[in-house]
TrEMBL record:
One of its GO terms (molecular function) is hydrolase activity. Keywords: Hydrolase. Residues 4-234 form the CN hydrolase domain. Signal peptide: none annotated. The keyword Repeat does not apply. Gene3D superfamilies: Carbon-nitrogen hydrolase (3.60.110.10). It comes from the Bacteria. The keyword Nuclease does not apply. Transmembrane segments: none annotated. This is Putative amidohydrolase.
Length: 234
């Protein structure tokens, strides 16, 4: 069975400086690609995505081009979440694809489909469900992922320490209930604890980061998941 990998980018994004923020995302994409990651999930609102997408085609091209180039160069499907407004997937083959958790649509060349409002990526060897809805602890999204036969559920969050305790308990519960591995990407900042984590299909904590900027990687091979944490390398 082909080994494939997904990762959470636990990052601290300097959103007051958009060029620097985009460049920081490119560093994560590069690091993921060099470590054989297939799908990379950023925390919720790691980029001011709604501002970029509403700024006109020329500005979108300016800010997203380097992300598209990085995704293509390093072969990483990159997921950016904008809370209740949905998000985008940047694929090596098809560029930027809009994602929504409210509608059922089919996206480019059967790479994406949406089930019960939960976007699902089909990659060689498995299915990856995406939580890009600003509600990381809600049950409807992992339940929809299971209905489609997803192998793992990735969810983007941006929660503080108190919220993390509630969200992590909920995700552990859904992992056990649905026998579904769950990987959460959380940001790290003065108000956010980091602690991006993965629970296996028994609800057991597989791996958890602390507060540093890291990749939290889950690799699947021969029906077994393994966790790995890699610090960001500039």
């Amino acid at each position: 069975m082909r080994q494939w990998s997904v990762a959470a980018a636990q990052c601290c994004s300097p959103q007051s400086n958009l060029p620097e923020t985009v460049a920081h995302h490119v560093r994560f994409i590069r690091h993921a690609g060099l470590n054989d990651v297939d799908v990379l999930m950023f925390p919720d609102n790691s980029l001011p995505l709604s501002e970029i997408l509403n700024s006109g085609q020329e500005a979108q091209t300016l800010w997203l081009a380097s992300l598209q180039d990085a995704a293509a160069r390093y072969g990483v499907i990159t997921i950016l979440s904008s809370g209740n407004e949905g998000g985008v997937a940047i694929t090596p083959e098809n560029g930027v694809q809009n994602l929504s958790c409210a509608t059922l649509v089919c996206l480019a060349e059967d790479v994406f489909c949406q089930v019960e409002g939960t976007p699902v990526i089909n990659i060689s060897g498995g299915k990856v469900a995406l939580g890009i809805n600003g509600q990381p602890g809600e049950e409807i999204w992992p339940r929809g992922a299971v209905d489609e036969g997803a192998d793992i559920y990735l969810t983007a969050s941006a929660v503080n320490e108190l919220q993390w305790n509630w969200v992590s308990s909920a995700l552990q519960r859904w992992a056990l209930k649905y026998q579904l591995p769950i990987l959460m990407a959380n940001n790290t900042s003065a108000t956010s604890p980091g602690k991006s984590a993965c629970w296996d299909d028994r609800g057991q904590l597989l791996i958890r980061a602390e507060k540093e900027e890291v990749l939290v990687i889950c690799r699947r091979n021969a029906e077994k998941w393994q966790g790995e944490i890699l610090p960001l390398v500039n």
